[in-house]
Here is the input.
Amino acid sequence: MPLSPLREGTHPLSQDEGRYLLKALRLGDGEKLEVFDGDGFYALATLLGVDAGDAYLEVSKPQEAPRPELELYVASATPKGDRADWLVEKVTELGASGLIWLKTERSVVIPKPGSKKFERWARLSDAAARQSRRMRVPTLEGPLTLEELKTFEFDHRFVASPIKESDTPLPSPLKGKVLIAIGPEGGFTDHELEQFKNSGYNLLWLNPHVLRTETAAIAAAAVLTAHL
Amino acid sequence: MPLSPLREGTHPLSQDEGRYLLKALRLGDGEKLEVFDGDGFYALATLLGVDAGDAYLEVSKPQEAPRPELELYVASATPKGDRADWLVEKVTELGASGLIWLKTERSVVIPKPGSKKFERWARLSDAAARQSRRMRVPTLEGPLTLEELKTFEFDHRFVASPIKESDTPLPSPLKGKVLIAIGPEGGFTDHELEQFKNSGYNLLWLNPHVLRTETAAIAAAAVLTAHL
Here is the structure.
């Protein structure tokens, strides 16, 4: 169960937490469960006080889960409407460590930081991380320009390309901090592709067909995480 | 433009077709365009009669587009609600030649052949094929049992597995008729996995996390088509 804040000691149950543990999971006094904070920490907890009508968790010392060998960051133009929601949900399920919205020359949607959209994406990402039993919820940043993206450190940088390049096979297994950049409808401009090239990005061919932004992002996450 | 039926000779424009060519694309008399039937045939057509107020297409002899080297069939349990719609749209964009719904032991949704759902999926698939500029719209079949699926011929058969098997690398490039089977929420049963094994399926590991059915189907299509 997600628990916030995750701290060693006594954690009184909120109404939602109580309903979930006692009604939905039907746990009884003395039963043990795993709790986690979504930031990579987890702990064993014991459900107590149920019989006395005042249930709480006794949380043991939180441990940090090992970091994944591949930390994948998806930097993507923002698709319209619920296509962005799907992108967030699916790249989370597939194991992305972070999602960065990109401001590109052909971008139509540029979400405002702190807006309701960001709140919804955080909720979706949180639910998807739980669904796929991930210890860490991906970070969500942006929108950033390509210039701003340059200041982040990565071990490998890729840009999704519709042109098949046979000369840049993926390292297998793929490890470390990896970035994949995904363009908007209509793709990156030649000027942007030039910027990527000058910043040490490799082209990553994904599919013989024209993919929508969210499809390319999900496909890239699937292909890169399968190379682990 | 999609055209049905696609036949050599004179094709009077329907109201929709006229609106699309004359209003949306603003084509004039004598202009040429490519028309296709979604079953792999295409032809060059000339727009005529516009100035006379009675526009029609003069269609040349239809040609068959070469079949793709990889013909990917996704056989999947049906996810609930709009998750099935997304599966249909995304595996079409990624280039699947066919989608087969599976009746599995843990299936919750078993769509009825000929139902409104199948009509909607056909429309979605058609639109997605056009979006990704595919000449062939995927076939949509099922729901089939694993027994019934056995009667189809494939060059390679895979079943998506959450367990990493390092001993069955994908052939690269992957060619011919390829089947990937995707289980329902909760996965295939041991009995079903035994059936797959006895029918010559290889396990295909996709991702370190627990994936929803539609995510696994889309990820599998992405990984397999990227191996072309």
User: Anything to note?
Assistant: Residues 78 and 145 of chain A are 12 Å apart (CA to CA). The interface with chain B takes residues 68, 86, 90, 93-95, 131-134, 205-212, 215, 218-220, 222-223, 225-226, 228 of chain A (CB under 8 Å). Residues 70-225 of chain A form a domain with the Alpha/beta knot fold (CATH 3.40.1280.10).
